[in-house]
Amino acid sequence: MLQVGITGGIGSGKTTVCKIFEILGIPVYYADERAKWLMTNDLNIIKDIKNEFGATAYNEKGELNRQYIAEIAFHNPEKLQALNALVHPAVFEDGRNWHRTQQNVPYTLKEAALLFESGSYKELDKIIVVTAPLDVRIQRVMERDQISQEAVQARISKQMLEEEKINQADYLIVNDGEQTLIAQVLIIHKSLMQ
Question: pTM of the predicted model, to two decimals?
């Protein structure tokens, strides 16, 4: 069974594309969502995050203080690297275990914003990159996360350049609002089924 990665810059529309694949019966592992889950449910990760970021990293209900962590990590490269070193290995293992449980499907998808940056692309057979114009991406994230343009641009600046991702892609989906996503997904799905 093939393992296919799907990535793209923040606001490119990866999740929307994944939903189309799910309609086609393809299971999707959402790495970023699982990372959030692991950060609030895996006792070892919780302990390590508290050691790295302090008790304020979690609120009194035991929920991750995302805004606090993001504020520190996005302004301090060493802290971001430390956070990734705590979370990425756990997500890798969780994803491997998830893939092994999938049955009777031609391939699985692993959706991850940091597919290349984390190194997890090395374990995958094919890579799909979702791309969209920068202004569209910024607008989508501003609306979705209720944050300023500057905050979105700060996040984008921390990600790999879109051109670099495209250069490593086996398949490209353009989510510019002009080309239909369904048609592009169907072409890739047909190719992966062969």
Answer: 0.89
